[in-house]
Each structure stands twice: as structure tokens, then as C-alpha cells.
Fold these 2 entries.
Entry 1:
Amino acid sequence: MCRHVALLGPAEPLAAALVAPPHALYQQSWAPRHQRHGTVNADGFGVGWYAEGDPVPARYRRAGPIWADPGFADLARVVRAGALLAAVRDATVPSADGEAAAAPFADGPWLFSHNGAVTGWPHSLAPLAAALPADEVLSLAARNDSALVWALILHRLRAGDTPGQALADAVYDVAGAAPGSRLNLLLTDGAAVAATAWGDTLWYLHDQGRRAVVASEPYDDDPRWQEVPDRTLLVATRADVTLTPLKEPPS
């Protein structure tokens, strides 16, 4: 379920990455090539981007399919950014949260997306939720698994964890509490991207010093795309990409 992409590179219209490529996120909403779970991502979408000189990203999210929103087409045509995170959503269960349930979730400089599903939701993660401060649970953006996973990660970021460590520890805890979960996570502050491959596909394209793209699947047929092995943490900047195996929780 779901497809997402994060990009760091030269400033260009959002459409250059999200609409124009032959297999862009826009097309992946109805015709993904590598999606293992679900087929149509029509239960909401969102894009967050960073304007030059402003560390806090803007967001545009809707509860419906990306192809049915003419406002997005106009926005993507004229808004330029050198860093973004966007996602199209295939919901796991019915929800009344509307666009609040659509990624990217945000706080301060951070944008976050979850491609996957937590098994046994919500009961499986009740112990992890109970360990969070009450105000953080009450401030959840939506009542779905992705919003709680984001709360777990944000709690670690606020405590001083690096983005990679925050993702790795959250995956370890959630996978331990809910075995069989799919936890492909994507996090950016506009300068770096951290991501996990855990149960679904993840790819990256790196043009050293110029561009780094991390996505559920390639948006074109450039031969430089590389697939990330399952159970791997990726951290990318425009300068380099680092891959680190993720620790498995006890069975």
C-alpha cells in the first residue's frame, strides 16, 4: 500500500519530479510497477516542500485521489523547490480523518511518510502508545497507524536522536510489538533523507553533489536507480548515500 518519494536537488517545479516522469508518483497512484500490497492509491495524497530560506516546509494534502484535484496540477506546475516529500495513500482501514491521515506528516523542519501497515492495529501498539507522554498521544494528527509511528519517531527526534537512529529504533520497537508489519519509512528536513526498507520496495537515485532521490519505486527508467535491500536503513544527502542493515527484534 502507498507510494512515496523524497528528493533533494536543484530547485525546479514540483511537477518535474511528481508528474512529468513517465512513472512519476502521479502515475503510481493508479499504475504502480513495484507495489506488493494493494493496487490503487486513491485514499488521499500530499506533498511537502521547502522554500528557499525557510526551514519549515509547506504542505498541500487532500483526502481524494491526486488525479482528481485540479488545484494540485496548478500548484505542481508553478511552485519550485529543491527539496520535497510526497506520497499517495492506499488506506488500510476506513477512517474519518480525511486529509489529516494523508502524508506527509510534519513538525517543525520535518516531513514524514509511512508506506506499509502495522499488523494488529491498534491493539498491537497500545503498549508503545502508553509509553509516550499523554500530550503527544492526544496531539496525534490522525487515528491511524502511520500517525502513531510518526509520534514515536518525533519523540526520539525531540530527545536528540539523529534521523537514522530515530527511524531504526522505531522500526525495531514496532516490528517487535507487531511482527509482520511493513515499515518503509521516509523522513526529511530538507537537507538529508532517512528511510527504511522493511517489507516493501525502496529505491534510490544519486547524482553525487547534485541530486538524491529516495522512492518506493523508480519514476523513470534511468539505469542508475538502485534497489535498497530489505531490512536496511538509508541516509542520503546530495553528497552521499549510506546503507546500514537494520537490527531484527527478537522473534
Entry 2:
Amino acid sequence: MNPLSLEDLKVLAQNFVDQFLQADFAAASSRFDDQMKVVFPEVKFQEFWQRFIGPAGNLLRLTVVRTAEMESYRVVFIRCQFERAALDVQIIFNIQGQISGLNLMPAETKYHAPDYVDTSVFHEVDVTVGEGQWALPGTLTLPLDQGPFPGVVLVQGSGPSDRDETIGPNRIFRDLAWGLASQGIAVLRYEKRTFKHAQMFTPELIAQMTVKEEVTDDALLAIQLMCQTPQIDPKQVFLLGHSLGATLAPCIAKQNSKLAGLIIMAGITRPLEDIILDQFTYLNSLAGPMTDEQKTELEALKAKIALVKDPGLSNAVPAKELPLEISADYWLDLRGYSPTETVKKLNIPVLILQGGRDYQVLPEKDFKGWKTALNSRSNAQLKLFPNLNHLFIVGDGKSTPQEYGIEGHMDEAVIYTIAQWIKENMIQLR
């Protein structure tokens, strides 16, 4: 039998990784040679997947990065770019095209600072937000000039997230921190509780978790830390939230009267369940007309959303019957919260920023909601960036999840807008 070509092996490798990522362990392991089947049985294969792939988040992009030959074996390297990690899968094929070896390793994803960053004018120090079992490591980025400086506390979006709000190769909170520090503004960013302490979240704790435990408690502690930092002017501390962090920014500000202002980046103004339905509908439309399977999935999602909206919803309803398997406690806690009604009752300056290509937070619905709520406010500024996506990275055409797997940076115009707005709204010391 003639050996398979490298092109054939690339196809086999990608098919194998597809099966692997879809948790089809029986199909994937059927490609193993006899020795691999002994060393790596299906049960062990599943444990391997749960340990390394599960925490990485959704797949954004999959590419063959290189091939190699060693003696009678040939190797294909597949780069898998997930939301929270980049992993290289090394697949070793024997002469018959069977898999004789498998390795998984973190891919090298070096951060490349954007042109608007000047690393010679700031430095960073490690800090801790909170204390006890939920203490969170953070980074305070400080200009080198003599303070006190205005400060910004960054609050991430939904899901487990590191302090850089890493999504694929993109680290937009580092872009923000370094970009603003280059213009004389201090920035505090920190790991989310669900990221740093993921192993501590038992099924019972997850079932009881609300945005209080996920976001607001730690954001309030971060603001407190910023206000108590000697190099920071406590009268000039601003809160910047992105996505879920932006949605909850008014709620956080309501609980802390010391904030000098709010920066809301891609914040929703509608119920979260409506946002989820819009997102799934949009994603299903990208490849053309929906398939019967997609239509069935969408109807199932609508049924779950109806449960969330049902006045009779209680925490006795299992999470698996609700959207994204988020617990009833979480949905019930959000039910009484309106970002727009809350922000209208705040007297501090507000900056609302929105990407025109954002499919997760819609300009024609959510940004419009902020405009309606703040239309008569002289201390509110709203700005739409037509070519930016949910990460405020420039792009063309319809936005897709796959573009989050391509390295980019928060647009310079966004950094400039935020910096100028902060300087214009700084409270002068008396």
C-alpha cells in the first residue's frame, strides 16, 4: 500500500481534531494504532479532553501550522485557537496513516503591543483585590510621572476571564491599560473570580451564583483598592465595564458614591435572554438558510427563554432547562435590574461606546437604548464606531466568532476617546 501524502494526512489530522473537539471519543480513537489503543483507551482520552480542552472555551479557529517527518513517522501540527487559550495538537502518523502518538501543548502567543503604547512612560505592580478565599491577583499600571493620577478600574464581560480579558490572541484589557497609561492615566485590572477560583465553584455554588458573586462584589473591592492607592487621586477614579461589565456598571456605581464617572463599552440595555436569542439567530444565519436541526435548536432555546420570562420561575427549575444552562437564581437576580433606569438616576458623567459591527450587543437596539435613556443628559456622551466589533477591533463585513481568533488590538480611536473624556471630566481638586 502506498503511503498517504502529507496533504492526505493534513485532512486526516483536521478530521481527527474535529471529532476530538466535538467529544466524539469513539470515532477519534478509532484512528489509533494498536499500541495507542492500549496506552490511550477511550476513557483516558475523555479525561484528557476534559482536563485540557474543557477550560479553554469555544473554538475560534483551527489551522495546520506545519508538518514534519521523523524516521518512518510523519507529524502534523494543528493550532487550535480557543477563547481563553491557544493549543497545538501534535499528531504522529505511522506508515499506514494510523495515529501512533498524540501531544497537546500550549501554543506560544506573545503579546505584541500596539503602536499607540509607549512602554517607557509607565510601569506595572502586582496587587491583590479583596482578601481571604476569594482574593484576586491584579495588575496596577501606573504612569512614571509624579501623581496623583486619575485611575480607571476595568470590569470584564461574562464567563471566566483573566485580567487581560484574553479572547483568542487578543488581550483588549491590556491594550486599554497600556494605552491609557501611555497618556497619563492609571489602570487596575484583575482576574475574575470564576477564572482564578474556578476549582472552588462546586455545583451547589454555581447554582446559587448571581452577578453579585460573579462581578459586582469584586468590582466594588477593586474600586476601594484604587481609591486607597497613594499614587491615585481618590476623587478621580472611573469605572470602565465591557460587555456584561458594562451592563452592570450602573449597578456598581449605584453602590459606590465615590466614582467620578462611568465608561460603558458594549453594554446591553435589554434582558439577557433576548440578547442570547438574537446571537443564536444571527450565528445560525451566517452560512445561509437555517437547517432543520438549527431550527429545532432555536425552538428549544425559545422554550427555555419562555421559562425565564415566566412570572412563576423559581430556583426549583433545573439549570439544564434554562438558556445556556445558567441557574434560575442567576436569572431571577437579573429580572429586576434595568441598566438604563439605573443609569438615569446617577449624576456622574457617562461615556457610552459601541462597535457598529458588534453582533453580540446590537447598535440598533442596545446602543439605541442608551441614547434614549441619556438623551437629555448634558454629562453623557455616546459614540458609535462603525467598523469595530464587540472587542472594539476593526474589521470588514459581517462579524463572526472566528475573527476573535485573529490577532488585533483595540482601535486607537477608542483609546483616544476614553483618555480625552477622562481628562475633560476630571474633578479638579479644591
